[in-house]
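User: Hi! I'm working on a homework problem where we have to compare a predicted structure to a textbook description. Could you give me the structure for the chain below?
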Amino acid sequence: MTTAPSAPIAVVGIDCRFPGAADPEEFWQLLLDGATTATEIPTDRWSPDGLPDGAGTPAGFLSDPDVFDHRFFGLSPNEAGAMDPQQRLLLQCAWRAIEDSGAAPRSLAGSACSVHVGMMSSEWGTVHLSDPAGMTAHRGTGNGYCMAANRISYHLDLRGPSMAVDTACSSSLVATHLACTALRAGEVDTALAAGVNLILTPSLSIFYAQAGLAAPDGICKPYSPTADGIGRGEGVGVVVLRRLADAQADGQRVYAVIDGGAVASDGRSNGFTAPNRFAQVAVIRSALARAGAEAAGIAVLEGHGTGTRLGDLIELSALGDLHAGRSAPAVLGSVKANLGHLEGAAGIAGLIKTCLALERRTLPPTAGAATGPDADLTRYGLTAAVGATRLPAGPLRAGVSSFGLGGTNAHLVLSAPPRTRLPGGSRTDATVLVTGSATADGLARNVRALATAVAAAPPGRSGQLGWTSTGVKAGHRFRAAVGATPEGLPAALDRLARRCADVESVAPAGRPRTALLFTGQGSQYAGMTRELARRCPPYLRHLRDAADALGPLTGTPGPATDAADSITGTAGPATDAADSITGTADELLLGADPPPIDGTGLAQPLLFAVQYAMAQTLHELGLRPALVLGHSVGEIAAATRAGALTLTEAARLVRVRGAAMQALPGGGGMLAVRAPIDTVRTVLGPALGAREGETLDVAADNGPRACVLAGSAAALQRARAELDRAGTEATELRVSHAFHSGLMAPAADVLRAVAEELPARPLQLPLASTVTGELHPAGSVLGPEHWLAQLTGTVRFAEAAAHLDAATHSVELGPRPVLTALLREAGTAPELTVLACCTGPSSDGAEIAEITARLYTDGADPDWDGVFAPSERVRRPLPGHVFDTGSRFWFTPARQGAGSAPAPVVEIAADGPGVVSPGAVAHPLTGDGDGGAGDLLVSTVLAAIRTVSGHDPGTVPGDALLGRDLGYDSVMAMRLADELEPHVTAGLPIAALAPDSTTVEDLIDHVRTAAGALPREGAST
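Assistant: Happy to help. Predicted C-alpha cells:
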C-alpha cells in the first residue's frame, strides 16, 4: 500500500513537570546532567508496612503534587479538593504550554481547539469513588478519564474535540497522533496533546513486582546489560500543536515538526502483555511512509526502552530490522532512564525530550547508558547516547516510540525546526511589558518572573519581549504593566513588583475616560522632545509629517516668553533678540545643536508640531480620548485632534498666527497674579481697561490662585501698584508682547483671511474650549470668529478645566507638564490620574510608553501593533504563569491504608480562602460585633458559604461574586439555598443565587429580606 506523506505539524508550545524538574528548562538540565530521580515513597502517599512485596519500591515522585492555585481557575476549595490532582496538574500545565506557544490562553476561548489527554491511571477516583456515603457532586466531576480533558476544555472555553486516551503506556503518544490527525483533517487549527501520571496507591507497583517486571532500585536501565525491570515515575506534559504553515505565518516558535505518525496493535502475539517485534516494525514503517522518510535518514531514536530484558530485546530486534547495516548508526536513548516509566505520560515525556533536542541540536545522554561488548548496539545499526552529543547541521530527523502494555503501539517521525533568522530589535526604543493574574496577590509573583526574563535576555530584545508579553500575558482580571527605556526596565520592574506586593491591587473599574490637554506657548525649550523622538519611532514619524506640513520656518530666537508659560503666570528669564533662524521643525528640534526657539514665530508652530505628533502617536497606539482641551495656541492642536482642522489647515493657521504676533510692535507686557480672577477684578475695579489709549485685559484665568493680566505698560504699572497695596502677589513677566489682550487686534486682522477660508468642519470629539470656557460637543463647528477671539480674548482655562470631571485620566501633550501643575494647584478633578507625554528637558523619552502602560493597567486596551515597530513584533520565550503555591489539596494516607475512603485535607495560604474550624465567624460584614440579630444573620450566611464552598469567611470580601471569585456554579448555588432555607421565612429569589451577578453582600441582603429583617443601611436589594 502506498501512503501519501502527511502535512507537517509544528510543536509550538511546551510545558511539563517531572520529578526533579518544575519546567522544561529544568527538565533539559536534568537530561544533560544524566540524572535519575527515583526516591523513597513520600510519607503522604502510603506506608508499605504490611503490604505485599513491591509496595516499598522507590519511584520518581513529583514534589508537591498537592499544590494547586484554585483561585486562578475560579474553583472553590471544596471543588478543588475533590478533583483528581491529575486534573489540577493538567490545568496549570496546559495554561503554561499555551503561553509558551506565544498566545494568551484566553485568546483561544470559543475556538475549535482540541484537547487530547493520555492517561492510564485514575487512582484518585479509585480511592474516592469507593465511598458511596461520602459521594458529592464534585467527586463525580473531579474524577474520570474524560473529565481530565474536559476540565481543560471547560476552563479555557475550547470548542474542539475533547477526549482522554487510555492505551496504557502509549496513551499520550497516541493522544498526540490523534491531535495531529485532527489538525491534518482541518477539524481544528490548534490542538493540545498531553499526558499525566500520578502514583497514589501501591497497586501497580505490587503488580509489576509480582509479574517480575519491577527494578528493585526503582531505576529503569534501558538497553543495558544491567537492566532488571521497570522503575516507575510520574509527571505531566503538554504540547501545543499547529499546522506548520499556520505556525510560520503567525511567527510562532517551532520546537520540532511532526512529519508523520502511526498507531497500530500488536495483534495476537505470544502473550497478551508480550510485545510483538513484527508489529513494532510495521508501525514504524507506516510512520516513516507517512512522513516521507527512510529509516536511514533517522539520526535520533527515542525508544520505548523500559529496562526489561525481554521488552528491550524485542524492541532492539525490531529496530535492527529497520536500521541494521547503516553507514552511520542512529543514536538511541530513552527518557525512562531519567524519570522512570511514566506510564500514561511516558510518550509525552519522550516527545518533549526529543523536541528540545532537535531545537537545540543536542542529544542528552541516556542516564546509565552501558558500554562494552555486552552493550554493543552496532549490530542493530544503533549506538547509545553515552554523553551529550552535538547533532549535525542540516536536515535532521528523529523517531519517537511508545508501546502499550495491551499492545497498542505508536511511533512519530519528527524533524528539526526550520531555521529562521529573527530581527534583533531596537536597543534604544522605550517599550511596554505587561503581565497579569486572576488574583491580586499573583501580580507581584509574575512581575518578578518577568523581571528575571528581561534581565537574562540579550541586549536589544526588550521590545520583542514586550510585544510577546502583550500577546501572552494580557486578558487577566488583574493587570500590571511597565513602560521604560531598555536600560530603565530593570529598575521599573523592581518598582512595579514592590508596588504590587505592598499595595492592595484592584481590578480595573472600567475603561478609562481620557482627556487630552494641549499645552500653551511658554512651555517650549531648545531641543524639546529629542529623547522622545529617539525612543519612540511613531512620534518621530508624525513629527516629520507635521514638519512637512509646516514647511521651512523662519523666526527669531527671542525675546519671547520665559521657560514656563507666560499665560500660566510663572516668571523667568527671557531670551534676547538675535538673528533670524530658518529650518524645518524636525531640523530645529532634533539637530545636533538645536537653537533657542522662544520667538513667537518659531515657538508656536514648533509647539503645534510636537503636540500634533504626540496626539497622532497616542491615536496610533489606540488611545481614544473622551474630550480634548487646549490652552491658548494649544487649542489649534486640540481642534486638529478633534477633527475640526486638517493637518494642512492647522499648519497654515498656526504659522500665520505666530508670524503675525511676532510682527507686532513691542511695548506691551504681562503680569502674573497669585489670586483668583474675581479678587483681581475687585481690587482693580475701573482700572481694567478704563483709560483712553491704554489697554489692560485679563489674559488668562488659570485657577483660584493663577491669573494673568496683559496690556500697555502704563496700565500694567498702575495695576501692579493697586495689587501691591491690596497685598496681592503680582510678578511682571518678561515677554515680547501683551498676548491675549486688545493689543493683539492687528494680528487678528491678519489672521482673519486664513480663518475665513477654513471649512466649517464639525468636531468629532468634545472640545473643552479655553476661548469660551464651554464644552463644545461633537458635531458642533468652530467658526472663523472663534480663532480670532482665541488670539485676543481671555484664556478661560479654569472654566474649561471644570469639564474634566467626567474624565478619569488626563494626558498632557507638550514639551513639559504645565497644565498638569495648574490642575494640581487648583485642586481641579482631584481623582484625575494625570500623565504627560514629556516631562521637560530631563525627559528620558519613555513617557509615552509609561502612559500606555498606565492606561492598560487601568483598563484600556491599546493597539499593540501600533505600540511596537515591525522589528519588535517577534515572539520570544517568556516565563510561564507563576501560580500560587500556598493552597494544598490531598488526602490522609493513614485512612487509605485502612481500606476506606480518605478524608480530604485542604490547606490554604493565610492570604487566600480556605477551610476553617466551626465556631463563631469574625468578619467585617458582621458590623460592630455586638452579637445582635444582624451579626447572627451575617454569620449564618458566611457559615453557609464555608460549608458549601470551603472558603474561609474571614477572607471573603463583601463584593466577592459567588461565581467569579468564589467558584460557585448552579449546583453549588442550589446547595447554598438548601443551607439557608431553614433561616428564612420566605423563599430566596432566583437573583439571590445567580453566581455571575450576586455578591456576598447581595446574598446577605436577600437573606435579610427573606428572613423578615430590616435591610442593612445603604444596602442594595
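For your comparison, note the following. The chain has three domains: 9-415, 514-843, 917-1010. The chain has a mean pLDDT of 87. Good luck with the assignment!
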